[in-house]
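User: My instructor asked us to take a sequence, write out its structure as tokens, and then describe one feature of it. I'm not sure where to start. Here is the sequence I was given:
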Amino acid sequence: MMVSHSAIGHVLLRESHMLVLTYATLATVDELFRYKSQGFKLEDFPGYTPDQWGIKAHNRPWIEEAGQFARDQKVIEVGGYSLLPKYLAEKYELEAWIGDDFGMAHGEPIWSRWGSPLELPSKYPSVKYVFEQFGSSSSKYPDGYFDRVFTVSTLEHIPYHHRLAVFKDMHRCCLKRGGRQLHTIDIPTMSANLTLMGAVVDKIDKFSILKKVTGKSISEIRSWFELIRASGVKIAIPIPVPMQLLDRRILVESSDVVYRFYPPNNAPKPYRPSASLCIIIENR
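Assistant: Let's start with the prediction itself. The structure tokens for your sequence are:
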């Protein structure tokens, strides 16, 4: 009897060690200052300069700190232009990949304003590029191959209806005991009134009709954890609550980064700062 690659991946997931969410927090300004003082720096690349003070300037060193990277590991960043895999490959002598179709499934690459992604493999030979989306159980992303899977400000750009498949696919690829996923997810900040409403919804489940109608909770944070749980992950810790978004110590995207790097670059645009949800999923 023929068994599909997708079915094999799901069997492996059921037979593997338990997936557990062991860390969840919102990035803070203090952490960003600490990473800046430690001198974390990547080479210049499209959309990034070392003088950047946005949430990615926190998230990339956080990935390194929390990832516990080591020689000969196999790691993959899911999504987009990034020199973090190159940095990790050279610093830790590990095998680094980037997986993303860069929008090419829909014609012109969505990041073409930063140059052709097809030029990246020859430009950065220490990184293996796979130009294919996660979520389809592609054999180009082997079952149980990676020790680390991580994303930086990527998952929120995936259409809502496709996110569960992407999480399950990342689980399929990171099945080794001790495997670890690290994700930083942009969380839009809202008015104080809407934030308070989200906090109430987190406490009271009377608004389940909203979820039935829209497919998601009013609380953006809660929606992500509902999705993660649905993907087969045990939530072993308390999760952040919407009220934390009102804390001035929570890091949000800087106006400087929005002005310079959000399209259209170096031009005025609405400023809607996002916070950053940082999570770790471990395979135990």
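For the description part of your assignment, you could build on this observation: Confidence is low (pLDDT under 50) at residues 1-16. Try explaining in your own words what that tells you about the chain.
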